[in-house]
Amino acid sequence: MNGTTHKCGGVALATLTVVALGGFKNISIEQGVMLVTGASFGALLPDIDHKGSEVGKKLKPISKFVAKHTEHRGFTHTLVAALIVAILSFGGIYILKNFYTKDITSRVAIGIISGFLIWIALDTALNSMRPKFVHNKKIKKLLDLEYPSLIVLMVLCTIFSNMIYNSLDIFAWGVTVGYISHLLLDMLNPTGVPILYPYSKHRISVANIKTGKHEGIVSAICNIITIFCLIILFT
């Protein structure tokens, strides 16, 4: 599956999970934004093992290291990896929330971290749209989120750090569920994924949806699920 489909799937599964659990019945707008951002980031994260992937291009040093020690759709596409990401996500949020004291240092820390993650999610979203909807090279260049935009986002997130602080838990949920959605969608591909590693190295595939074929239908279904769930959450 391509990055666009994975983002759509991550957001769809994240909002569906929230609705199913009923834990965020009266979800706020900022929580919704953090949920979508977390799910978008988590849905791309397994492809960190591919230097040419959307997330690999933004996290080049980490991607190069991971790609050197594992094959594409290897360890990062397993339930063990998903568990590690969940532990790191919720552990990191726990540390941030205990560290946060509303002083300038803690506000800047949250601003830098959240701004960077939102920057990746926005940039990958625009990157996936450009080839389809934008044909003018100058406009494509304008839509590139370069480092100045990262700084702007970090500053904005620092300013609104109190609002972000109250939405950190749902962000971690988004990352975790988004990561799992990536594995599930890749299981629809004939190549499959070794999801049960290290218990089994066998690649599990449950369908024959090839990358680049019928993905528009999958994305559309995911988007319909997301819209339906958001209507429930915000009403």
Structure commentary:
- The protein has one domain (3-233).
- The chain is built from 11 helices and no strands.
- It has helices spanning 3-21, 29-44, 54-58, 60-69, 79-99, 104-133, 137-142, 147-159, 161-165, 168-186, 215-233.
- Helix 5 (79-99) runs antiparallel to helix 10.
- The longest helix has 30 residues, at 104-133.
- Residues 129-134 have low confidence and may be disordered.
What is the fold's blueprint, element by element?
Elements: H1 3-21, H2 29-44, H3 54-58, H4 60-69, H5 79-99, H6 104-133, H7 137-142, H8 147-159, H9 161-165, H10 168-186, H11 215-233
| Strand percent estimate | under 5%
Overall SS class: mainly alpha
| Major sheet characteristics | none
Rg (CA only)? 18 Å
Outline the low-pLDDT stretches.
129-134
User: How many angstroms does the end-to-end distance come to?
Assistant: 32 Å
Mean pLDDT: 77
Number of helices: 11
> What is the string of helix and strand elements?
HHHHHHHHHHH
| Count of discrete domains | 1
Give helix % range: 55-70%
Shape annotation? globular
Task: Tell me the number of strands.
Answer: 0
GO molecular function, one term: hydrolase activity
Keywords: Hydrolase, Membrane, Transmembrane, Transmembrane helix
